[in-house]
Amino acid sequence: MNDSIAPPPSEPAQPQQPAQQARPLTHTRTTAGHWVAIIILLLALGASALLNIGLLAVLAGSTLAGMEGGERNKFTEETVHGRGGDKVVQLNASGIITFSASSGLFFEQQGLADRLMDEIKEAEKDSRVLGILLVVDSPGGGVTASDILYDRLVKFKTAKGRNRKIVVLMRDLAASGGYYISMAGDKVIAHRTTITGSIGVILSTLNLKALGDKIGIKGVTIASGENKDMLNPLRDIDPEDTNILQTAINDLYDRFVSVVSRSRGLDAARVRTLADGRIYTANQALEAGLIDEIGYEEDARETLKTVLGTEDFKIVRYRRVRTFMDILNARLDVLGRLPYPLNQANGSPQFMYLWQPAFTR
Q1: Nearest C-alpha neighbor of 88 from the set 166, 152, 12
Q2: Quick check: pTM over 0.85?
Q3: Distant-in-sequence, close-in-space partners of 11: CB < 8 Å, separation ≥ 6
């Protein structure tokens, strides 16, 4: 008999637990991506809602403005200064003087010349308008746009048998075409820091002949005459072309000199000595007789009282009323424009009454 004691049965081995693995980050990343997408979507919806509210506000405003008389009024009036039944309309000639429009966020922006022409026409219809306060802050612009605007301002003063007045207030810059339109004023006032003058004409372009030869670009032009492609940038400058263009510039320059001479009461020969294209400070312009005085906005208002012979008037400015159809038509116009040829309408060299120092050499 075996007295040995059997060992107790061993407990079953526990299965070894695998090492705990790192928790995948896929879920966290996915959640973050979803939040980013949601935020972007909300921002887009918010922007869309703001645009729609803006469109509805413009539509409502134009509808209310058009209730009177059953017709849509083009402008509303905002009082700038003073009180009284009679008015002086403040026109802000700020920027390049051009008829070319530009595209805005909701609607096409009129060129400065077009906008001012519309405002002058509106002022002319109002029998309570005694005159215009023309605030100029412009380096000039197109020869034709400047001349048409000047002529329209002059005719405004005597339209419909009236005897209206124009006072000009120059701000930072009233150069070249900006000075040209200022010549319609009965009195011309410049701020102490105004830059004015630059009386003259400029035609700017680039000649790329040397660059074209270097990189292998040649121009191909088929024209009816040897002068038809003047200022072709891919051929050498022809002295005959230069002479032709200089003759045109001289004629346009003579027009500028005559306008200044007549408006300022200066002899044409004296104007020519001043009109070599240089700019003038306010002090220099006053000494040369190109302006009447140096002052500020309150001085311009006092001058208005003097030339009008009354203090009983308010200064107003116009705000254009936009309709929903204006916005819709402008958007369709922008969408319908072909991307090529780029800037075809304004790509040609233009004769300018413009202070353009970057391209004068």
Answers
A1: 166
A2: no
A3: none
Long-range contacts of 67-70 (CB under 8 A, 24+ apart): none
Helical ranges in the chain per DSSP H: 26-65, 112-125, 143-158, 177-182, 209-215, 239-264, 268-274, 282-288, 297-308, 324-336
The amino acid at 279: I
Is 10 inside a domain boundary? no
Neighbours of 217 (CB within 10 A): 11
Active site residue 214: no
Cα separation, 279 vs 285, in Å, equals 9
In this structure, the number of other CB atoms found within 10 A of the CB of residue 200 comes to 20
* Count of residues in the chain: 361
Residue 291 has pLDDT above 80, yes or no: yes
pLDDT mean over 326-355: 54
- Same domain assignment for residues 55 and 79: no
Quick check: is 176 catalytic? yes
Q: Among 357, 199, 155, which residue's Cα sits nearest to residue 290? A: 199
* Whether 157 and 80 share a structural domain: yes
Catalytic residue among 62, 138, 146, 176: 176
Same domain, 198 and 214: yes
Mean pLDDT of 277-300: 97
Residue 36 confidence class, pLDDT cut points 50, 70, 90: confident
Pair (138, 55) in one structural domain: no
Q: Do the beta carbons of residue 86 and residue 310 sit within 8 Å?
A: yes
Q: Residue type at 160?
A: K
186 or 16, higher pLDDT: 186
Token couple for 95 = 């920027």
Name the residue range of residue 47's domain. 37-72
**Active-site residue among 103, 121, 228, 258?**
228
